[in-house]
Amino acid sequence: MEREHQVFVSDVSIFELAAKDGKHVALGRLVAERVARGIRAIIYNDTIEVVPIHETTILLPKTYRSTLNVSTILSVSPASDYHKE
Alpha carbon of 20 to those of 15, 44, 62: distances in Å? Predict the structure, then answer.
């Protein structure tokens, strides 16, 4: 019996790929159009699901998801809160 698999990629991974490949393009090791074509191939491939970084089902193991309030953990206070005199 053959199993089907689903492919996921984080949007952060795509960003990192673009940044690293951008460095190689700047150094003349890669051609910019080829990098852009590769990234578009990942983004627009219907069999690859791009997962946002804030997706809690990916970030946390199942045991923690049920006990933690992820929105509280991931919320960030304004920078002014850290510089009170």
Answer: 9, 20, 32
Residues 11-40 have a mean pLDDT of: 95
Any alpha helices (H) in the chain, and if so which ranges? 11-26, 32-43, 56-59, 62-65, 70-74
Q: Which domain holds residue 62?
A: 7-83
**Token pair in block for residue 32:** 């910019």
Q: What is the pLDDT of residues 37-48, one digit of tens each?
A: 999 999 999 999
Evaluate whether residue 73 is within a structural domain: yes
Domain count across the chain: 1
